[in-house]
Amino acid sequence: QVQLVEAGGGLVQAGGSLRLSCAASARTFSNYAMGWFRQAPGKEREFVAAISRGGHTTNYADSVKGRFTVSRSNAKNTVYLQMNSLKPEDTAIYYCAVRSSVRVGEITARSDEYHYWGQGTQVTVSS
Questions:
Q1: Which of 43, 94, 98, 106 is 20 to 30 Å from the Cα of 79, by its Cα?
Q2: Is 121:8 a contact under the CB 8 Å cutoff?
Q3: pLDDT tens-place string over residues 81-112
Q4: Residue 126 pairs with which residues in a beta bridge?
């Protein structure tokens, strides 16, 4: 069982920045690919970004490409999501997720391929 705790959400004006973090309880964190997803009110959960075990492979949704950056510290069992140039349409609850038992460099945008989820952190972008 892996526990994930997100932090860093809040209220920000359009054009501003936030940095989300997700701390994992796993002793083998470096064996896991990590993903970020978000869910806005009345909408389906959607993929935001993913990062491979070693951090060398990343993938982003088109809607955030060039504005968001995913990174990780395996020494700290933590994954980050740096969000710049935020827009009102980025308003959502953001979740991090773990995909265990992955090969080196393997990542996915499919939410059903992740095994553990955090409780989420609210990001609100005002216009």
A1: 43
A2: yes
A3: 999 999 999 999 999 999 987 888 889 999 99
A4: 13
**DSSP string across the chain:** ---EEEE--EEEETT--EEEEEEE--TTGGG-EEEEEEE-TTS--EEEEEE-TTS--EEE-TTTTTTEEEEEETTTTEEEEEE-S--GGG-EEEEEEEE-S--TT-----GGG--EE---EEEEEE-
Q: What is the per-residue pLDDT across 14-65, written as a single tens digit (0 to 9) for each? A: 999 999 999 999 788 999 999 999 999 999 999 999 999 999 999 999 999 9
User: pLDDT category, 4, cuts 50, 70, 90?
Assistant: very high
Residue 88 has a CB neighbour count (10 Å cut-off) of 11
Q: Which amino acid is at 67?
A: R
Residue of 67, 74, 60 whose CA lies nearest to 22: 74
Structure tokens at 68: 């968001």
Spatial contact of 69 and 91, defined as CB atoms under 8 Å apart: no
